[in-house]
Amino acid sequence: MRFATLLCDGVEQSVVAVPGGRWAPLNLVDSGLTGDLLRLVERVPDAGTLAALADRARSLPERDLVSAGGAVFRSPYRRPRKIWGIGLNYREHAADLSAPHPEQPASFLKGDHTIVGPGDDIVLPRQSQRVTAEAELGVIIGRTARDVPEKDAFAHIFGVCAILDQTAEDILAQNPRYLTRSKNFPTFFSFGPEVVTLDELAGYGPDLERLDIATVVNGRTVRANTVANMAHGLRRLVSFHSELMPLFPGDIISTGTPGAGVIRPGDRAQARVGPLTPLTNPVVADPLIRPEGTAPSEGRGTP
C-alpha cells in the first residue's frame, strides 16, 4: 500500500493509492483520519486494518478521488517525535572519506523544524558555502518499539520513504563535533512523496537488500548503492535504537546515504529509492545574503 499527504481543497489530507493512479482521501473512509499521515501512523493499525482501509477506499465514487496529475504532494507529516540520522552506513561511502565504517551505528538527531516536503525549496544557509544533499532510505516506525530483537524489527515498521538529508559540509569539516549544527538548518530534511508499506517491496528481498538508493543532482546520478551494502541493516538499526530509547509511531530513521552531491542555487536535488516515486527539491539561496563563491562539483558528505 502507498500512502501520502496531499493538498486537497487547500487542506492537507492523508490519502491512499487506489487503482488507476488515483488517490483516495482517508477522511472519506474513516472520519478519524482528518489531517496528515501521522494521524494514521499513530493509530498503529496492523496490516489487516490497513488492507481493510484500502479496500474501503477503492469503493469511493470517482468524484472523491484525486488523479495523479492533480495531486499536490506535501510532506507526509511534520511533527515526528524523533528523527534519527545514521552516518557512514555504506561501506563504500565510508571508504570515500578514508574512514572505517563504525562498528555500531553512528547516529545523530535532527529537529522537526528541518522538515520540508516534495517540491519545497532547500534553502542554503548563509553560514555555509558548501552544502550537500544526500539521498537516503527512510524507515517510518509504526508501533512503539523498546528493546526489540532484530528478528521482530519489521513488525514495528509502518513503511519506508525517500529522504533528502542535507549537510553544511564546510561546518562539519571544522570539527566532527559540529555534526548536529551542520545537520539542523531549516529545510535540511525532505521526505516523501509517499510512504510505502513493506508488502509492496516483497520482491526486493526479506531485508529489502536489493532495494537501490541513488543521490541525483540535476539529473546526474552522483552515487548509487543497495541496501545489501549497508554496514548496519534495517533490522539492526531499529533494534539498536530501540535499546537506547523508545521509538514511537511516526519516528523516522534515515538510514544513511550511498554518497552526497554539492548543491547550489538553481539546482534540483533528487532521491531515488527503488520503485518509490522520486523525491525532488529545488535549491535556493538564503534570502539573507548568500556569501559569494563557488563550490566544487562533488561532495563528500557524512551520512
From TrEMBL:
One of its GO terms (biological process) is small molecule metabolic process. Residues 272-303 are annotated as: Disordered. InterPro entries: FAH, Fumarylacetoacetase-like_C, Fumarylacetoacetase_C_sf. Gene3D superfamilies: Fumarylacetoacetase-like, C-terminal domain. One of its GO terms (molecular function) is catalytic activity. Pfam families: FAA_hydrolase. Keywords: Metal-binding. Residues 82-284 form the Fumarylacetoacetase-like C-terminal domain. Belongs to the FAH family. PANTHER family: FUMARYLACETOACETATE HYDROLASE DOMAIN-CONTAINING PROTEIN 2A (PTHR42796:SF4), FUMARYLACETOACETATE HYDROLASE DOMAIN-CONTAINING PROTEIN 2A-RELATED (PTHR42796). This is Fumarylacetoacetase-like C-terminal domain-containing protein. It comes from Rugosimonospora africana.
